[in-house]
Amino acid sequence: MPISINGTGTITGISAGGLPDDCITTAEIAGSAVTTAKILDANITSAKLAQPLTVGTAQASTSGTAIDFTGIPSWAKRITVMFNGVSSNGATDFQIQIGSGTMSTASYASVNAYAGISGGFTTSTSGLLVNVAIGAGNSSRGIAVLSLIGSNTWVYSSVLNRQDGYAYMGSGSSPALAGSLDRVRITAGGTDTFDAGTINIMYEG
Predict the structure, then answer these.
(1) pLDDT tens digits, 52-95
(2) 120 falls in which pLDDT band (50, 70, 90)?
(3) How far apart are CA 34 and CA 39, in angstroms?
(4) pLDDT of residue 16
(5) Domain segments of the chain: what residues?
(6) How far lies 102's CA from each of 13, 89, 105, 109, in Å?
(7) CB within 8 A of 120, min separation 6: which ones?
(8) Element (H, E) at 178
(9) Are 123 and 110 in contact (CB under 8 A)?
(10) CA-based angle 90:95:98, to the nearest 5?
(11) What string of DSSP letters covers 54-76?
(12) Residue 198, exposed/middle/buried by CB under 10 A (0-12, 13-18, 19+)?
């Protein structure tokens, strides 16, 4: 069938597959013509999203008093901190600190409880506690999840264990940051030195 244009500008005579490749560009498609109903769910994959789930570069927690992850994008709304066999040379509780431009080291509201042979809990305002009542060489495994609640304030929860059967459960919130979070620090209290294990982060929008 030949292609024809009637008096109203309607084009007829074009069958499926009848147009040559690349004859219609993105600029020629009206924005209002692309609706969610016309987008197949199967076509939406993490690789095509602007803000996919992103895994950082794992860092060996075998030296230093702190492990920093920087360059976190402003669109991140949830951050998971992962611990695998992390230990230090002292008995200071591990904690997470966050920041925007600089690290915030005060005004946190954090509690961490432990259970095992015995139990107890500890609170902190200098960071988000991920374990308590540890000793030199005790290793921790598990995750801590930070979620943006609004106004650059983050809440968190954590579940870790210790190699000798203790379990740690934590929760709390951060102070309001001056801007979007762009860094996360894991510290052995700022005094003890990490001596084993691996730490990494994962973030998403």
Answers:
(1) 899 999 999 999 999 999 999 999 999 999 999 999 999 999 99
(2) confident
(3) 8
(4) 55
(5) 4-45, 54-204
(6) 64, 27, 9, 19
(7) 113, 114, 132, 133
(8) none
(9) yes
(10) 140
(11) EE---EE-SSSSEEEEE---TT-
(12) middle
Q: Could you write out the DSSP letters of every residue in 121-145?
A: EEEESSSEES--S--TT--EEEEEE
Q: pTM for the whole thing?
A: 0.75
Question: For residue range 21-51, what is the model confidence (pLDDT) as tens digits?
Answer: 666 676 767 767 777 666 666 666 655 566 7
What six digits make up the tokens of 84? 């695998």
Q: Cα–chain-centroid distance for residue 29?
A: 35
CB 42 within 8 A of CB 181: no
- The CATH fold assigned to 54-204 is Jelly Rolls (2.60.120)
* Distances, alpha carbon 16 to alpha carbons 9, 13, 19, 20, in Å: 19, 10, 8, 11
Task: Identify any residues that bridge with 148 across adjacent strands, giving them in sequence order.
Answer: 154
Within 10 A of 156 (CB to CB), how many other CB atoms are there?
22
* Residue 142: pLDDT over 80: yes
pLDDT in tens, 156-165: 999 999 998 8
